[in-house]
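Hi team,

Below is the intake form for Protein-tyrosine-phosphatase from Sinorhizobium kostiense. Please confirm the fields before the structure is written into the shared record.

FORM ID: S-0412
PROTEIN: Protein-tyrosine-phosphatase
ORGANISM: Sinorhizobium kostiense
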Amino acid sequence: MTGTAFTDFRTPRSVLFMCRMNAIRSPMAEVIARAALPRGTYVASAGVRHGERDPFVDVVLEEIGLSIGRHQPRTLDELEDDYFDVIVTLAPEAHHVALELTRSMAVEVVYWPTPDPTVAMGTREQIVDAYRAVRDHLSALILSRLAGNGLRKGA
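The structure came back. Fields below:
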């Protein structure tokens, strides 16, 4: 973890998930967090670079009753708001950019290393399994570190 941890264990009021292209990991985390966090929590996602929507994200989210809706990948420059209680980075490049952007801001930056499922090879089922693993990894982290108990030290 980078930065200081929340000491009052509250659920953050606003969360930004960042990855490289806002096509897989960060939008998946955004959708899962919206479902898991209390109503009124502002959740967004963005990428360091512009990406293309990935249809496998729809497949694995629909399996757990969630939908990415009309989400289109967006960069940090395209965000409507730029203040967040916590920024969760999911890829090394995003983490470095977040640290640089928040150098003079009172915002928590947390790094959750998350594999890129696009590197998976094999059958369609093997590829979808890689996306499922990312979905399940993000769900577990969101539920254990953000939902209910808030961001905990060591997150």
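SUMMARY LINE: Residues 1-9, 150-155 have pLDDT under 50 and may be disordered.

Thanks, M.
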